Amino acid sequence: MNCHVTSPAQPVRLSVPLPASKSISNRVLILNALGGSKYSVRNLADCDDTAVLQQALTSAACNFDIKAAGTAMRFLTAYLSITEGNWTITGTERMKNRPIRILADALNALGAHIEYMEKEGYPPLRISGRPLRGGEIALAGNVSSQYLSALLMIAPLMETGLTLRPQGTLISKPYIDLTLQLMEQFGVKADRQEQSICIPPQKYTPVPFTVESDWSAASYWYEIAALSKGSEIELTGLFKHSLQGDAAVARLFTRLGVETTFTDTGTLLHHTGNTCQTFEYDFINEPDLAQTLAATCAALNIPFRLTGLQSLKIKETDRMEALKTELRKLGFPLSDSNGDTLQWNGEHCPPEACPLIATYEDHRMAMSFAPFALSRPESIAIADPEVVTKSYPAYWEALRSAGFTLTTA
Hints:
This protein has about 400 residues and is of the alpha/beta class. About 30% of the residues lie in helices and about 25% in strands. It is built from 12 helices and 22 strands. β18 (about 335) and β19 form a beta hairpin.
């Protein structure tokens, strides 16, 4: 099934209730389980990734299929390795091709027993859960911050605690900060030095917790605000001083013609039209925003150079290749370099007559390309629109509320 998205006739003006943060929800579920909490997490994210993680943590089963949920795969691998029992964990075909060796090797070095059931270095995994002795370990910091977060969350339950030494450039640093700040809210303190994070043995303290709205989901409304002249959009449930690194989207979009005003209930976005001539940014800390910014810049005809994208290759799809392929369909030939850089120099190629945007089982491809309808006289077609359930199930209904016309075929 494809979804054809047509632009509203009027400027976009509405109030949007955003989904809860998936990043916070999934971490708090793990912390709740590690602390034996009887509190329910309030405003838990209503999305596929969080649902499969919650189901696994509350199930009596020993075999888990987490489908396409990368966060669940990384976090559960660590959680199950320290939880008594014999477990297996698998996922979609794409998940079976997303590497996990770095995390599995680190856990095995700390006393875990993890085996690969099919291809070496990749899920599915067989895990014999047991107490972990802990100790000191060095881990590549330039692949996925979720590996580090997974280790940090189980660290206080290791017999000797854990000293973690990230090696090389640390990507997605705000997600590490988020993990440590949430752990502190649950009673666990870390000694963070410039080159290491030390967590001695401790116990988690159960606390009531309410999840804030998702800044990553907000990014698509910033894109809509940038592309809709005269737009005014209220996004509820966002905090100015957020734990989420993707709150940087408010700052980034000032360069693309969107002003943010914080209120007691969230944010107000105003279209200003004051845009930069070219856009350059290092996404090392906010890689999940890259697709949104690439699509927005192209739709505004603003040449761009995006760096710090090395982790995009191991996401739901190879997002660098996906962006190159799909933006070319719309007339924007991108180039890449160094395995971490995408750029568009302002040149155009002939667009396809009736482009169909492939989504590659990637929710962010669908959500970042749908607003492109605002820059086109005709609709834009999005393949497999149901992929948005991974993080934002109400996305299409929200677009309808904003005046977009959606038809399926």
